[in-house]
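Reviewer 2 asked us to include a model.

Predict the structure of this chain.
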Amino acid sequence: MSVTTLGDLSSSYALRQRNVALRQQIDRLTNELATGQVGDVRDVLAGNYSYLTNIERRSSILEGYGVATAEAGLYADAMQNALGTFNTFASDLSFSLLTTGNSAVGVPGTVMGAEAENALNGMIGAINTKAAGRYLFSGVATDRPPLANADAIMTGLRTAVAGATTPDDILASAEAWFNDPAGFEAAFYSGGTAAIAPFNLSNTESVTLDVRAIDPKLVETLRFTAVAALASDPASGLSDQEQAELFSKAGQGLLTAQDNIVALRADVGFAENQIDKVAARNAAEETSLEFAKIALLEIDPFEAATRLEEAQFQLQSLYSVTVKMSQLSLVNFL
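Predicted model (structure tokens):
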């Protein structure tokens, strides 16, 4: 009768191999208990990765849309704040102009003119605002500020109204110059003629934030402000009474124009609301996909703990056998 045995080298190799296998199993089970997810995805999915791949692909797409909605939200918020600042300058100036123009002892014309010029500087500064390195009101040309500075615009306006001798003539000449594409726009608008590209918020939704510095609603407010700043200019040759009249009419024009600025802000507010809604839906879908992925790959903690305890017991048993085998000798055997 033949007896098959393993040599010492073979036995040592088999023990080491079993040792490594048990250690790897313990590491995997420990990691599964810590993360709550399976370590061997192939075993769980039985080689069918289509569902998991679809979840991960959709999550990746939503992550990209998350960046887009965040960018659109930043852009819209900055635009809203800039329009708010613009409107505040217009509102404060209209009140001062109406008070000065209708008061028997109003503010001196030079002081009122300086206040109007300061407001014009503030308005242009608001329109030339940029967010994340892009100018907001330049249309597609986001790399450059849309408007020239107030001094340049005032110089152009003085030339345009030269020869006008009454408040009504000045207002009419200013309106013609600001509304003429070959006038104010051609000389002092540096932005693009096309709107900025829409922000894609999802597969089916996008939003366009097209408010440029040459929007008639903004130009109207700039026009009345510039005219008020020009009223006290010695070159205009207006008497104190005519200056007061021009201040009053410019103030009334600014007051009326505020409704248009409010309408612009409402349009931007609508876009902000749309961005927030889409962002919330995308975030909800992304969370749902994450839960689906967790459910697909999650483990049974009780089963994993039982298997870990079993593997640890087997490793301890293996150590015990190894120790006993290392203590064997021919003397003990005999």
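The first helix runs from residue 8 to 35. The first strand starts at residue 130 and ends at 131. We have added this to the supplementary material.
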